[in-house]
Fold each of these.
Amino acid sequence: MQLLLPTIILSSISSALAQSVSLYVCEHKDFGGTCSNNLPKDNHCYNLEETNDFLDNQISSYRVSGGCCVFYDQYGCNMRDHLFSATNRQHGKIGSWHNDKISSIKCDKICRFD
Ligand SMILES: [Ca+2]
């Protein structure tokens, strides 16, 4: 029992470090309409056309936790199509200049722009 406690602490620390960023996105403001937590893998470009969520050019609210996500207007996560990035942040009503535009997303522990 004396050895158990340090093991529990160590394993909970390592699982926290290994935990991926999570993203929740919705079709309408205030997390309404069709939503998805169909998560992009870390540092993987996630094209919304490839999913069955019908959220391409539809996302109006989002929640990022455990890291950062970068949102793009076109497929392929190219810097020229960059809309905005969010670290551990949520927004119930994306501004009109970004609303219904997101077409690809890349998430990771910290944001990378490439
Ligand atoms: Ca778009």
Amino acid sequence: MKKLNQSWSESTAPTYKSYTLNNFREIPQIKKLPPRQQFEMEVVGNVLPFKTNNYVIEQLINWKNIPDDPIFRLTFPQKEMLRPHHYKEMESALKQDLGTREIQKVANKIRMQLNPHPAGQMEHNVPHLKDGTKLYGMQHKYKETVLFFPSQGQTCHAYCSFCFRWPQFVGMDEFRFAMKESEYLVQYLREHPEVTDVLFTGGDPMIMNARLFSQYVDSLLDANLPNLNTIRIGSKALSYWPYKFLTDGDSDEMLELFSRVTGRGIHLSFMAHFNHPVELSTEAVKIAIRRIRSTGAQIRTQSPVLRHINDNSDTWAQMWKNQVALGLVPYYMFVVRDTGAQHYFGVPLVEAQEIFRDAYQKVSGLCRTVRGPSMSSTPGKIQILGVTDIGAKKAIVMRFLQGRNPDWVQRPFLAKYDEGAIWIDDLEPFAGKQFFYEGELKEMLQSETEKGGQDVSIAGGGPP
Ligand SMILES: *Cc1c(COP(=O)(O)O)cnc(C)c1O
Ligand code: SF4
């Protein structure tokens, strides 16, 4: 691994400093905001996850453009993220100074109304070993790929206020699930030769230091699993803390670990989460990308389409172009889930597809590796292909990119046109009573439950 140019690291190595509800009023740029706006942040930040850091504040947010700045909206709580009655409820709890425990109670009551575990994620997809051990830190939904949630990777360098993993971050402990022993993972891969990919996810696994993360990865390497083709790392660290790969104490060690993976003939795919072109613009992220790529890892990118952040085709076209220029491979555009501040960030399916289509039309073929917009729903990843006329009626055309049953993939199917629909549950089949997969899906879910309810999990799909 090429060491960083010393002068760069010495002059520009910032120390990570995080800001949360407890200390955000110390941020100089926040001090300048009117007290009313600071209080609004406190109200919302008591319900939704809130964490940011010095890199996001100093290098990504343009403080001359508040509150419209996309990264400000992405990481700082905004009044409109809560519905008015929820806002009032928390506002009045704070104004009455009810005390930490009571405020926590009010917060959890509101959170429970925000659909904290969408798309059946609580009920399905937790795998088990042949001896019956349930693996709560894992999820196996699509044949080839297992998701793995390292227990020490359940946080991030900053939080996206749209994130569907928010119950993990706000201390709703009963939703936290994780698995310490990577031996279980190895054992599972031995029992499942069909699995080719392990996807480390979180939170953000890149919150772990290199030594800890290498325990997981090295046990996979040491196990010499013939079926293991690819290790994926789902991470937003390139956006929120690129110094992880530059100047942090363990950055060289982390990159050496990446090289160790590729050196063993295993593909390392870094699934980077970028929501806006500005996240690709700093010197720090550019050098971090170069360093990761120099290990032989490939960086693929993904993001949901988000109101107020990237809900127009120019932003997406720019983002994909910048990514390809930096050697990244655009991979997924997601539709934001029906949870948390969905009413604030959500973009209807038809509009999301128009944004995708218009952006796709503006870029070269090398950007068109991207697929979307895609919903990570209970039956699978469903892509909206477009709107078409069937006789005198309009229809929405969709297909599965991933299916609980692989046989569903790549078969176009139709729904009645609905401009306002935001999720598959809002759509009706164009003809007949149900979508082609629904009968089979019901049977699959039923038989899973009968097998002993092998499933408690809130994660899966979506970013990062
Ligand atoms: C998206 C996703 C994967 C990975 O799917 P690919 O199409 O291979 O990228 C795996 N598991 C779950 C649950 C997912 O949502
Ligand atoms: S979207 Fe990813 S980076 Fe953002 S808060 Fe959620 S898990 Fe963390």
Amino acid sequence: MMAPSTPLLLTLLLSVLVCVNADWLSSLLSSPKKAQAPPSNIPPPSNSNPNLTFLKWFTNNGGYVNPAITLSVFEMYGRGLKVLDGSLVSHLEVLFSAPSNIILTKSKIMDLYDDSTTKRGIDEVVNDDYAIALELCVQCALGPHSKWDAYLNVLPHHVSNLETFTAHELALLDSASLEKLGNQMQERTTRQYAAVSGLLKNMAEVSGQKAKIPKMGFEMTATRCLSFESFRHYTSIVASRAMVISGEKHLTPLADMPNYEPKNDGRVMANGQDFMKYHVLGDDGSMTVKSDRDFGSGQQVFEDYGDNPNSLYLEAHGFVPFSNPFDCAELPNPVITDEKVLNVMKKLKIVEGEQNYCPPVCVKADGEVETNTRSYAYYAVAALGKFPTKLKYCEVNMDDPAYAGSACIRWGGSGKAVNELISVAANEGIKNFGSSIDEDEKRVKTLEGNEALAVRYRLSKKRILSEVASSVGVVEEKAKVVSDDPTSLAEKVANFNAFIESLNFPTNYLTAYLAGAEQRVGTKASRKIVAGEPYITVPNVAVMSSDTAATDSSLVNELIARGKSMNDDFHTLLFFTMHERFVSKSKSKWWPYLTLLPTLQDYQEYHPNFFSDEKLEGLLGSPVRELILKNQGKIKRNFQGVSGDVAVLEAFGKAWTVENYSWAMTVLDSRSIWWSGMRHLVPLLDLINCQEGPAGSTVHATNLDSGGKNAVTLAPWSFKEGEQVFENYGQPNHIYFLFHGFVLQSNAHDCSLIMASVGPNDGGARDMDELKRRMEEGGFNSYSAEFCVNEKNVKEETENLMNFLSIKDGLTKVDASVGVEHVEAQLKKYPEVEPLADDAGFDEKCMRSLVEGEKKMLGLVLAELQGRKDEL
Ligand SMILES: *[C@@H]1O[C@H](CO)[C@@H](O)[C@H](O)[C@H]1NC(C)=O
Ligand SMILES: *[C@@H]1O[C@H](CO)[C@@H](O)[C@H](O)[C@H]1NC(C)=O
């Protein structure tokens, strides 16, 4: 792959180091000057254009090239791909497809040789790059007899990567690590050449004989092509042009030609997943490359090589991008002087060894550090020094592996504190450079070649650090999303009621209205409703489900069909809902319903799926916090998983974002009404708010009528005309909170969650068969058990908990003291808190009430357990 720099034409000198000692070559070694050869391969006949010869060779070998593109030469970039004048190339269009027989990999090269010694020799070459470089040396020596001749003719004569940097050029990089790496690369190649030169000679001989090349002509080129300089050159060629696919380096003619330019699509780092979307290895070993964006007439076809920092581009490809959103700059870790903080770092194994070493972080211009990294842990713990209460809470919990992470690393506010420390460190980092940004900007204009690359490289680092340094204190919560539907809520309600009217429900005693405060929208009785009578009957056709999923997009319909065929009811409904809400919008038949649902902004305000770590501090100590984090993680993972599917990206385009996906996940998780084993979104029925009913009332249930055409709901209790109608969903508060973001003050079905699980270090895990047997016997079907305690079931649940804990510890007899220990440890996890202010948010009040409930129930369980202990 080529660099955005003017390639220097460097004459490949005949190296005195030539160590090809074949008898038929030895005469040449005594007079190396005679063998001085032209800098490139044997020139092709002068009337042919090497670019066109190459493309012809490519298709003659069974390759496909999109007729809209050709090879061309661009200023600053050198050779690249170009869209023909008057043509267009669109995102995901196939650019070309290279057949297997011209792609070089180590294993394919082994197949070119019959004798097992050569095969083994190639197999033993330390890495793919060197193995492929050897074969390129051989093919170079074969000249016009080589199958790859047309390809070799369009390869650059010089590739400047880190290895070709002189000591002076390396010093210009102003990076100790790269300087070291550059020197190592040079030494390594020299060592390798010495190790493989015998093999190379042998490969060349065998290939020369096979091609029936008259000796003398072959010797001339062979000397040049098999030299150290040539080996080093082809190693650079492979390092910069071959790509790793399925764990093996592939040097693919043409696929190595598009130049780099980032897409700037704001995507997150995903370990090259994005690159793999556009480079597809076929079952027949061919490689198909698709366009990663739209290109207009006459434009250069660029490619985004993936989520890499500049160091990789310099190291392997020998260029420094003009811009790269994935570039990062290394920061020296702040030195820790606080003994307590250092102690936490040692305990959590964030630092190691005598020197308390932790690898330095590489920050991008936005200054963000991924939360699940060791660097984040380092900075988050370092920041605890300024928060004594939080540090104390961390110290109390750091021995519990299940809890140390949330207490010491992802503590509320840690994101902001990490950002601040990073900014300070960036400021320090800038001071370590020997020159300023201004000086470099002036200087880079006067330089060329490797010197220009080196200065451009360090300039990029400085710019990143200065951007990070200047962002102190400006790191805010993510910008609020603006609504894409300006209609007022009152209008939406009116449109919705008209929509419901048009659907002709067989029975409907409800109207939607603005219920105010936390409820937003609710339902009221349009006439008197009597307990037990059907009061809302919704026909199947008025319900969004896998059955009614159909859109005006054939691409989305294909996804829906695929979802159905895999019985993936969830994604079928999700794709349907996302398409109608974010793509069709007001053109969708379902719009009056979808637009009345809580918006993304609403959810960001109150739904736990969108809570920040800081907000979740309100649940510190509670198992509900862990469940919320688990849900949040699940949404992100699912999104990333599904995003790997090109068909999905194509079908949704700009609407496919993690926010829109999270909205749809939240809608489905919180509003689905189940019958016949399937999820349904039921307009109007799902607007009924939740409340405890009077004595004797029933819990919500919707069922299909006998004809299977309508979903019928019976009134849970009686309502007067005009009164707000409620249902009782019969769930404990933590379930309401997890899925809907509210709790009920009065809730007969409430109970508080206590969790316990068996870990690999528990006594019970020593004998897994016995553990399994006892779990089954005790009626536990998971190594992680949930107990839900209220005043009525406290005896029973205490008993269950005690049984579980005894099995967990591998005790032969049920023992109340293990229960006491467990509950006391749980109670210790709740930090001391101030009473809530009167103006505390609804979410804060909900979380506090969950925590208070849990503490109270743990107290009851503890008393119960102590009573039993005393009995013994
Ligand atoms: C083919 O490539 C050469 C450089 O090797 C360039 O000078 C020439 O303009 C190219 N020809 C065409 C037709 O693009
Ligand atoms: C949701 O989808 C729309 C397309 O309708 C898109 O423009 C918007 O950016 C997405 N919203 C977010 C917050 O990602």
Amino acid sequence: MPAGGTISVFPENDYGPNLWEFLNLLQETKPMAKVADYYSVNEANKPADKQVYHDNDQCRAGRDIPQSERRPGRGGYRHCNDCDK
Ligand SMILES: [Zn+2]
């Protein structure tokens, strides 16, 4: 140990790359990401039985909602079926 050398909390030199690999793996094995409830401002224009809120960032319908048209909460709507998958 050289004098004045810093003590690393990571024992392996390649811990960094391994960490990224680990995080990537996590993302691949967890396709559905729960997020805070949100709904589209355009939901109000849909038939009542089609009005839903989302709570999953990987939901196709939910992802189609532009950030500017998203509102937090449930808006009194049903839970989106796709968000459950
Ligand atoms: Zn959804």
